[in-house]
Amino acid sequence: MVRKRWILQEQRSELAEEMAAGLGITPLVAQIMINRGITTVEAGREFLQCDLAETPDPFLMSGMQDAVERIRRALASGERIVVYGDYDADGQTATALLVRALRRLALSSETINYYLPDRFEEGYGLNCQAVAALSAEADLLISVDCGIASHREVEEAQRLGLDVIITDHHEPGPEPPPALAVLNPKQAGCAYPWKELAGVGVALKLIQALEVPGWEEFVDLAALGTVADLVPLKGENRTIVKRGLELLPKTGNLGLRALLEASAVAAPTAYDLGFRLGPRLNAGGRLGDAERGVRLLLTENEAEARRLAVELSQENSRRQQVEQTILHQAVETVEKYGLQQRPALVVWGAGWHQGVVGIVASRLVELYYRPTVVVSVQGSEAVASARSIAGLHLFETLKQCSHLLTKFGGHAMAAGLSLPAENLREFQRLFEELCAAKLKPEDYIPKLNVDCRAELCQITEELIAELALLEPHGLGNPGPVLQAEVSVVRTRTAGTDNQHLQLAVQDATVSQELPAIAFGAGPSQAEIERVSEGVALAFVPGINEWNGRREVQLQVKDWQAVSEPENFVRRWLVDAYPWKLGPAYFQSSALQFDGREAPPVPNCRFVDLRGNPTRAAELSRRRNAAEPTLILVNRAASALQVCRELRIAVPGGRSFIGFAHEWLSPEERAELERSSFTWIVSTGLGLPKGSWPSVWFWEPPLTADTWIWWTSLAEEGGELVVSYGPKDVRDLQVHLRRDYPDRLVLAKVYRLLRTPTGQITLGEASAKLEAAGLIGALPAALGIFAELGLWSTDGEAIRYLPEPAHKLDLEQAVLYNKITKIRDQAALYLKRCLERGFLQDGFERQN
C-alpha cells in the first residue's frame, strides 16, 4: 500500500445542513456533494436527477448549425457519408453511434459507412493516404474523436473534393483545421457550457441536433465510451453515464448484450464499463483490428455478436499477458538505473508492443508516482504513451518538447507522441528537466482527498444506500472517502503471500466491531498493531456479501497513526506487550483474591448499566478526564486490551487513561505512579482500597471474593457502575473452560509435554500447547504438577520427576482445589450475573 498525503476537504457544515434539508439527504452526503462543486439546492437536484432533457442545447456548440445543414443535405440527396473514427473505445463507440444514427435517417443504409485507421500502419487521426482513398468512395467525411489537429489532411480532402466535418474533444491548437464545420467544445469562442465531453459525447450532441428519432437510445454506447476515455464524470458526462447504465441491462444493441455476457456482467457499474467492457474494445485496437469492435456494436446478428465478443475477450487476455511482460521489463529498467529517484520516468524497449505502452505507463505511475513516458522503439522510429500526476499538465509540457517530436496530442493527464529514436536521450533529459521545474517535492507524494470525518455509528447500510445516489463514480466524481479515528481490535493477513490485511475496528460510538479490508497492507500489520489504540483510517464504506452473509465493511485506502504513543504507553503498553504475552497474563485475578481476608465494603451508590451498547460513550459522558476512575477487568491481558480500546474511544483518552495489573515490574509500577493518568484499567490487585470515587465493573467479577475486593476499592459514598454485557459473559465463559483446566485437560497437558529426555523448555511447551489449543492451561498445570511432585520448573524449563509408586490424586493439590472451586463458583456467577436480582445484595440500587 503506497502511503499518501491526506487532504481533508473544507467542511462547510452550515451549507451542508441547508442542502441536506432542501434535498432530503444527510448532512454527510450533502458535504460530499459540496466537495464536488455542487453548492446549491438547485444544482444538487440537477446532480441527483440527471435528466437528458435538461442537458445544454447542442446548437450552443460552435459549428453545429453548419454541420447539421450539411449532413441533412447529404442525407436528403443520398450522398455517401463516411464516419472516420479512432481505434480506442471512445472512438469505436463514437463511430458505431454515429453510423447507427445516420443509417436511421438515410434513404439507404448502404450510403453510410465508416473507416478506422490501423493503429500501427497509420497511427492516430486522419492521414492523407486514407483521405485520398476515401475521396473516391464518399462525398462527406465526418471525423469522430479525432481530427482537431489535421490541418494538412483536411486541406488534402478539400483539394480532392471531399467535404469534411470534424467532431473531436481533444485539445485544439491556436487555429482549427479548415473543415466545413468543426465541433469541439474546447475550441476558442465556443459557447457550449460543458467542455469535457468525450468524443462519443460530441457525437451524441450531433445526433441530438439532427433530431434522430429515439436518439436517447444511443446513450448506452455514449456511456461506455465516456467512461473508457477517462473524462470527468461530472456535468453532462455524469448524466450520459448514469442514464446509459440504466439502459444497458435492457439494451437493444446485440453487440453490447454480447459484450456484457462475455464480461460476466449483469448489472453494470461505471467500474465495469472502465475495467471490463472498455478494455475488451480497446484490446482489438491495441493488438489487432479495432474494426471488430465497431462491427460488434453495429451487428444485427446475434451469433456474430457472440463470436466477436468472445474474440475480443480472448484478445484482452492476450493483451494482459503482453502488458505484464513489458511492465516487468520496464520495472527492471527503472530499478537497475535508479530512475525512480528522478523527477520523471522515461523508459523504452525495442519492439515493445505499441498497443499496450499506455497501460504500462499507467501501471508505472501507480508504482512510482512519477510522470511517465513508455516508448516502443521500432527501428529508427519511436512511438510512446505518457501519463501524468496531479500538478503537471502533460500536453502543455510536451509542447515545450515539440522540436524533438514528430507528432503529439492529448490532454492534462494522458498523451500520445512519436519521435525519431535518435532523439530519445535528449527528450528524456528535457522532459525530466521540465518536470523538475514544474513539480514541487510534495507533488511526488500521492494525494488522497478525504471528504469528511465520520464516526463508525454513521456507517450503516442506510448511509451506503444514500451514497449510491452520488454514483456513477470516476474522474471528477470520485467515490467518497471518509476518515474515522478507531482502535484496531484485531488484524489478520489474507490473500496470496499475505499481501492484504483484514481488520476489526471500533470507536466509542459502536458496541460491535466493524470489519475492514486494506488491500496491499499486509506488510504493515506489525506497524498498525503497534499503534492500534489510535489509528485514523481513510476508507470507502461498502457492503460485503459472501457466503450468504451481508455486512457493512470499510475498504481502507490509507491509514495513519493518530499520534505516537506517549512514553509510558510506548515502553510498556506497546513495546513491552506487543500481543505476545506469556500465559500468566491471561490468568484470572480470582486466584489471588481467593482465601484473602474480606475487606470492609463501603456504602456506595450503585448504578446498573449492564448491556449498555455504548458504554464507552456513557463512561465519557459521566466522567471527565480529571476525575479518578477505576475500570475493573479479570485478567492482565484484558487490562491491556480495554486500555487500548478506551484510549481511542474516549476523546483525548491517550493523555489520561493507563493500566495496572499484578504482573507489572517494580520499575513499571513506579512509572505508573509518576504518570498523570487519572483513569486506570486494572485487575484490582495492588491498588489502594477505599480511594476511588467511581469504580466500573467492565467485566463480571468471577467469584464472591472478587466481587467484595472490587467493591472495597470504591471510596465511601462513591459510585459502583456495573457496565458489562452479554458478550463479556460469553468471553469469560470461554476463558473459564480454557484457563481453569479440569482433570481431563490436565492429563492431556501432562502427556503432551513429556519427552524422551524428560525435559522441555517453557518455550517449547508453550508452542506445543498453543498448537493443541491448550495454552491457557499451562499456568495452572505448572503449579499443580509442581505441587504434586510430578515435575519441577525453574522458569526456563520443565523437568519431569520420577513417577511416584502410587497413583496421585489431583485433589491433593491445593491449587487444583482452588481452581475447581473458582471454576464452579464462576460458572454460577456468570449464569446469573445478567439477571435482575443479581445486584440487589446489600446495595441501594439506582437505574
Write the layout of secondary structure elements.
Blueprint (H helix, E strand, L loop, with lengths): L4 E4 L4 H11 L3 H9 L5 H9 L14 H14 L3 E4 L4 H17 L6 E4 L12 H8 L4 E5 L6 H9 L3 E5 L13 E3 L15 H11 L9 H10 L6 H13 L6 H9 L7 H18 L3 H8 L3 H36 L7 E6 L6 H12 L3 E7 L2 E7 L6 H6 L7 E4 L3 E7 L3 H15 L8 E4 L1 E2 L7 H7 L14 E13 L5 E7 L7 E5 L6 H6 L4 E12 L2 E13 L5 H9 L14 H4 L11 E4 L6 H8 L6 E4 L3 H14 L7 E4 L5 H9 L4 E4 L9 E6 L6 H9 L1 E9 L3 H14 L3 H11 L5 E3 H11 L5 H10 L3 E3 L3 E4 L13 H19 L11 E3 L1
Parallel strand pairs: 1-12, 2-3, 2-4, 4-5, 5-6, 7-8, 13-14, 16-18, 19-24, 19-28, 20-22, 20-23, 21-22, 23-24
Antiparallel strand pairs: 8-9, 9-11, 10-11, 14-15, 14-17, 15-16, 17-18, 25-27, 26-27
Helix pairs in contact: 1-2, 5-8, 5-9, 5-13, 6-7, 8-9, 9-10, 9-12, 11-14, 12-14, 13-14, 14-15, 26-30, 29-30
Q: Could you name the key traits of this structure?
A:
847 residues, alpha/beta, 30 helices, 5-stranded parallel beta sheet, inorganic pyrophosphatase (n-terminal core), 5 domains, elongated, 18% strand, 7-stranded parallel beta sheet
| CA-based gyration radius | 36 Å
Low-confidence spans: 564-586, 841-847
- First-last Cα distance: 49 Å
> What is the CATH level 1 assignment of the largest domain?
Alpha Beta
* Total separate domains: 5
Question: Which CATH architecture of the largest domain would you pick?
Answer: Alpha-Beta Complex
Description:
The protein has 847 residues and is an alpha/beta fold. The protein folds into five domains: 52-313, inorganic pyrophosphatase (n-terminal core) (Alpha-Beta Complex), CATH 3.90.1640.30; 338-444, Diaminopimelate Epimerase, Chain A, domain 1; 449-560, OB fold (Dihydrolipoamide Acetyltransferase, E2P), CATH 2.40.50; 567-731, Rossmann fold, CATH 3.40.50.300; 740-812, Arc Repressor Mutant, subunit A (Orthogonal Bundle), CATH 1.10.10. It is 41% helix and 18% strand. The chain contains 30 helices and 28 strands. It has a seven-stranded parallel sheet. The protein has a five-stranded parallel sheet with strand order 3-2-4-5-6, sandwiched between helices. Strand 14 and strand 15 form a beta hairpin. Helix 11 (254-262) crosses helix 14 (302-337). The chain is elongated.
